[in-house]
Amino acid sequence: MLPQPDDLRALAQTSAPPSYLEAHEFTPEERCQLLSIAHNAIQASLEQREITFADVSPHLSEQRGVFTTLYSEGKLRGCVGYVFPAMPLVQAVAETARSAAFSDTRFLPVTPEETAILKISLSVLSTLRPIGAEEVEVGRHGLLVSMAQYRGLLLPQVPVEHHWDREMFLEQTCRKAGLPAHAWKQGATIEAFTAEVFGDEGLDH
Questions:
Q1: What global pTM score does this model have?
Q2: 65: Cβ–Cβ under 8 A, 6 or more apart, which residues?
Q3: What is the pLDDT, as a whole number, of residue 204?
């Protein structure tokens, strides 16, 4: 049985300023292929059919964490992701796209009529690494804060869009985890990652 997408949710995203993007790892063709897989996975679920992954390069078969974010008419419509590498990237994109469309409890399931106007953004994550609070760079790092059974994650674009400084970013990630805002000063584990973010034409990346 496949692991379910991590239930950590990203905050609403409206754009992806280039300041937090690493050097492009994925070619334009690979980006198009991954976005096509995401759209196809949603459509296939509505049609109750399986999808296959044909002509997939070894690069897209690597295990990676990824978040899939859906937009409808410019508004957030769903966001679900795997923080940790759990399966090949192409499969993770399909799984998270389906879950964002039909299992994000903040929204009603996507309808067949909506598929024509859905826009998709993908955030492919680097591996997590421990980081000191003073090393966190707004506009470059995403954060995962954990303590005991509590975990909270924010993607790199979130503090940029909300105009947060480093301390506010740390505090808001703690709050996302259900922890006190200053838990990052009180023994919570801080891990950082970067993300390559790209999406459908018409999204401001």
A1: 0.77
A2: 81, 82, 83, 84, 85, 86, 92, 124, 125, 127, 193
A3: 61
